[in-house]
Amino acid sequence: MTKKKFGVTHVGDEVTAYTLKNSSGAYVTLLDYGCTIQAICVPDRDGKLVDVCLGYHTIEEYEQNDSYLGAVIGRFGNRIEKGRFELNGKTYEVAVNNGPNHLHGGMKGFDKYIWDVLTTDDSIQFSRLSPDMEEGYPGNLAVSVTYRFTEENELVLDYQAKSDADTVLNLTNHCYFNLSGEGSGTVLDHDLQLLSSHYMEGDADCLATGKVLDVAGTPFDFREAKKIGRDIGMDDVQLKYGGGYDHNFIIDSKAYLKKTAVLSSNATGIRMTVWTTQPGVQVYSGNVLTHRQGKTGVYDPHDALCLETQHFPNSVGKKEFPSVILKKGEEYSQLTVYHFER
Asked: For the segment 13-23, what is each residue's pLDDT rounded down to a tens digit?
């Protein structure tokens, strides 16, 4: 593990970059600003290191640009309808910052804070205390995210949290992957397999309605690997709403650590397998990435794919779905693994 100064925020806070490297030379670089994954450099079929994670070279770019590149999302990943939820008979209001709905923790979510850091030789733990009613959420929440990068080129994300009052919690990471290399152009030529037979319907604002749909016979059937772009232009109202894929898929497996997705690039031979303890994964095809300069090239819509492992969006109060309520004193624990091979 090595570290170096990454930059200074507009309010004068210093941001540090931490790099975890394994014996093969593959590495990941992480920022204490937003627990952000700034780079993932893994070998292609010829052994050349390729950075497969969209990001920026300066803290100013992270502060100025949208889309949450590589950041941890909290307290609540994805959307909450009309920025309102009920817990223990009380209604809580959170920011409406995505059309008529709440998105990714509000105006200043976890992605915009500098976290405390504890390091070891092979891991980095980021932690912070989210105070009671921060962005409208109840309870003082002690939260940590630990990253490890293994000899097998596995990036492991270990989420832990505890609150002193009942609250709602749905943590995820918003890494944008392009296995041909960040800045290389479209991700629509990547092959994607999702181990999911069902996905959640979205409305015109990409809010999950709560209705569960079967993937069979639809553009959302990735049970057998296919090109991301093969069906993305089909005449399907769900695709039209978001300009592509922006939907929660329900993982079929009921195992503790579930195989969730396999993404691969023919250009580099790099394959990424996703494993998680979460029940769902938001598949987002970078539909509204705005034209911007990235680390080595310009980023445009559909230049990356997000696979955000999480509980189901907009599921507060929906008893038929896995609960997003974290009870006072209970331990929140979730694990996600991104395994890179060639």
From this structure: 999 999 999 99
